[in-house]
């Protein structure tokens, strides 16, 4: 069977995402990533360089996924917010990765700037079209507020396992839609 570099990269990214989301950059182990990806540490290093570069690749991939969720042609800012909410619900590891990057303060943010700027530019294009001129608010301000609302539940610690009623994602989605609608007002 021929070696498939793209498949190996995908497996390494998937294994790295799980490892970094669970343990952060400092606690992640390259040997566990390589074992989970079914490759050698040497192959992992050949594809991504050092552990910090691998973390940057994983974080940038998560930012790109957010950008894809934000790239649809939305009918309203509320639809945009719900799409971001749904993406975060479907990809909880992305919030964890971002949290680790902020906590550990070891991430090379310059290595992520181009990806983050593309997500921002795409999002602002939608927001400027959907909610032009909001008084003193810039599109960046609206973007920050919409992201905060869409990610509100991801910022909370997990609830006790014995809680009788788990949060209803449908209810949370409706709250995101209503909160952004109220934010924009009539």
Automatic annotation (TrEMBL):
Keyword Nucleotide-binding: no
GO terms, biological process: negative regulation of DNA-templated transcription
Feature: DNA-binding region: 29-48
SUPFAM superfamilies associated with the record: Homeodomain-like, Tetracyclin repressor-like, C-terminal domain
PANTHER family, A to Z: HTH-TYPE TRANSCRIPTIONAL REPRESSOR SCO4008, TRANSCRIPTIONAL REPRESSOR
Record keywords: DNA-binding, Transcription, Transcription regulation
Domain of life: Bacteria
Designated name of the protein: AcrR family transcriptional regulator
Gene3D superfamilies for the chain: Tetracycline Repressor, domain 2 (1.10.357.10)
Segments forming a coiled coil: none
Pfam families listed in its UniProt record: TetR_C_21, TetR_N
GO terms of molecular function: DNA binding
Origin species: Frigoribacterium faeni
Domain HTH tetR-type: 6-66
């Amino acid at each position: 069977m021929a070696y498939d570099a793209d498949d190996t990269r995908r497996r390494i990214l998937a294994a790295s995402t799980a490892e970094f989301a669970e343990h952060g950059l400092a606690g992640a182990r390259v040997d566990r990533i390589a074992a989970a990806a079914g490759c050698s540490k040497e192959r992992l290093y050949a594809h991504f360089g050092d552990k910090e570069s691998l973390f940057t690749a994983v974080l940038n991939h998560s930012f790109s996924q957010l950008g894809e969720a934000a790239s649809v042609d939305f009918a309203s800012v509320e639809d945009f917010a719900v799409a971001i909410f749904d993406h975060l619900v479907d990809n909880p590891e992305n919030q964890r990765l971002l949290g680790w990057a902020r906590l550990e303060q070891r991430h090379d943010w310059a290595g992520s700037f181009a990806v983050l700027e593309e997500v921002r530019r795409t999002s602002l294009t939608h927001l400027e079209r959907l909610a032009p001129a909001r008084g003193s608010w810039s599109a960046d301000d609206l973007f920050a507020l919409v992201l905060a609302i869409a990610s509100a539940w991801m910022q909370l610690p997990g609830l006790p396992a014995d809680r009788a009623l788990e949060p209803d994602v449908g209810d949370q989605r409706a709250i995101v839609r209503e909160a952004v609608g109220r934010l924009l007002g009539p």
